[in-house]
Amino acid sequence: MVTGASQGIGRATAIALAAAGARVAVAARNEEKLAEVAKHIESAGGEALAVKMDVADPEQIKAGFQQALGKFGRLDILVNNAAITRDGLALRMKLDDWETVLRTNLTSAHLCTQQALSTMMKQRWGRIINVSSVVAETGNAGQANYVAAKAGLIGLTRAIATEMASRNITVNAVAPGFIATPMTDPLPEKVKEDLKARIPLGRLGADSDVAAAIVFLASDEAGYITGCVLDVNGGMRMG
Question: DSSP letter at 107?
């Protein structure tokens, strides 16, 4: 199950997991884009299920996981990727903007994890990967809500990793830097050039860079890694 799978990192992750042999439930609000992702996976010989799901709605989360389990019979991998932004200076940030971002970016991951764990614990096997952000580690002006949510994901990752280690369920996070996605596309070119100047590798990341890290953390080869935050940021934050 990949949330926020209709575009960007979520879409790339779903396609990469399918290419690695997983049957993938792709979840998001946009049915048209989800159908395109599922079609892309199936045209390459994979198996996909499009699940319309607003992760801000607990009932839609429950229904979406039931739909996926009804189709595939088990759940081995959960990627909590869905996220939104509602930027603004902390001093003037409206309570609704704060709560909406926390609900979508953090609370949803907790609720999706609850749904996943009910089946993973019975299997005594599972992989949960949370998509955090470099700004969770560095801070970022004008994004107090987004930064708080993404930092919360790191704490959630380590808490659930500790709880679930004895059940052979690993829980890790990836912290992407500035990635070329629909979320960053609207940025002015000067801003993008300024960002590149802060990145030792000298370029924005690609969604496939993050997807590759997620596929690794979901693999058998990463079975001895849990509670980890894997930075995928071109060297923006070292040490």
Answer: I
**What length does the chain have?**
239
Residue 81 neighbours by CB under 8 Å, 6+ apart: 2, 3, 4, 5, 9, 10, 13, 131
> How confident is residue 125, by pLDDT bands cut at 50, 70 and 90?
very high
- The residues that are catalytic are 146
Q: What is the pTM of this model?
A: 0.95
User: Cβ–Cβ contacts within 10 Å for residue 64, how many?
Assistant: 24
Amino acid at 143: Q
The distance in angstroms from the start CA to the end CA of the chain is: 32
The β-bridge partners of 143 are 88
Specify which residues 131 forms β-bridges with.
Answer: 174
Q: Enter the tokens of residue 123.
A: 């299997």
Backbone angles phi, psi at 236, to 5 degrees: -60, -35
> What is the widest separation between alpha-carbon atoms in the chain?
51
What angle (nearest 5°) sits at the alpha carbon of residue 18, between those of residues 155 and 223?
Answer: 45
Sign of the CA dihedral 136, 118, 45, 40?
Answer: negative
Instruction: With beta carbons less than 8 A apart as the criterion, state whether 233 and 177 touch.
Output: yes
| 239: DSSP letter | -
State residue 12 phi and psi, 5-degree precision.
-60, -40
Q: Which structural domains are found in the chain, ordered by start?
A: 2-232 (3.40.50.720)
Q: Are 134 and 176 in contact (CB under 8 A)?
A: yes
Dump pLDDT digits (tens) for 74-114.
Answer: 999 999 999 999 999 999 999 999 999 999 999 999 999 99
